[in-house]
Amino acid sequence: MRIDRADSEAELLGPPISNSEIVRVVAGDFEVRLAQTAAEIEAAQALRFRVFFEEMKAHPTADVARLRRDFDAYDEVCDHLLVLDRRRGDGPEGIVGTYRLIRRVAAAKLGRFYSAAEYDVGPMVNYPGEVLELGRSCIAKDARNTATMQMLWRGIALYCFHYNIKVMFGCASLAGTEPAPDALSYLYHHHLAPPEIRVRALEHRYVKMNVLEPGSYEPRKALARVSPLIKGYLRLGGFVGDGAVIDHEFNTTDVFIMVKTELVTEKYIRHYERGTRE
């Protein structure tokens, strides 16, 4: 589903505001904030390349392989959330985690959200209030720990609070193009979105998730096959859409995730505000 383009840049972006005023949290050696320079964006893309293409064996285009950076047109309209380990540096060299954040006004510049290539995202486009598409979640291999993930979520919570985001969504992945049927069935049986906000995979890409009958598999074992990122969304009350999508370029099976932001912002804003008073 396409989004109508705004008539002018001012209509899209509104009053200018510095990225540094939207998200910034420092906790010990770690900092979370939005990218402020082209060099930082390129470093985030290079991190994505190392994780997605070198580690996870995705298949790069010729330009991506030549530059050793994962990039596309959405990188030019989104906000790039960064986690920096300041022991490694305060700029590009310190980046250990990143997320790509696309609001409705940013998606309008390209005419659609990124996930519209796989799903009919009409329920999200038409959702009352501001929405946010999350994507390209990525953490360096030697920084994959609870502290880094929590910093990313604190940054997302502050971003949602600043822009009054009501729901966030995006494609999250299971490794490989032949996912375990019990994992897909578990997600469908236990976390399928209500009909009024249920997103469905495009017909030509639709892969049935309701593969096994309820009771024919062990839910705990099925959940263990679900990626940590998806499990994190589910712990925040997230839902999945109807239908998985095979992404041969990235060597993954995608499911659509949506999360209403009340719990996210309440949990992390409250924690952040308490920390600033102590």
Write structural notes for this entry:
With 278 residues, the chain is an alpha+beta fold. It has one domain (9-277): Gcn5-related N-acetyltransferase (GNAT) (Aminopeptidase). Helix content is 36%, strand content 23%. It has ten helices and eleven strands. The strands form two sheets. Strands 1, 2, 3, 4, 6, 7, 9, 10 and 11 form a nine-stranded mixed beta sheet that branches. The chain has a two-stranded antiparallel ribbon with strand order 5-8. Helix 6 (146-163) packs across helix 10 (262-277). It is globular and about 50 Å long. Residues 6-17 and 272-278 have low confidence and may be disordered.
The low-confidence parts are: 6-17, 272-278
User: β content, as a range?
Assistant: 15-25%
How many distinct domains? 1
CATH-derived topology: Aminopeptidase
Give the ordered list of helices and strands.
HEEHHEEHEHEHEHEHHEEEH
Quickly count the helices. 10
Q: What overall form do the CA principal axes indicate?
A: globular
Question: What can be said about this structure in brief?
Answer:
By secondary structure, the chain is of the alpha+beta class. It has helices at residues 9-13, 38-55, 62-67, 104-110, 122-125, 146-163, 181-191, 219-224, 228-235, 262-277; strands spanning 24-27, 30-34, 79-85, 95-103, 119-120, 130-139, 165-175, 200-201, 239-240, 245-247, 252-260.
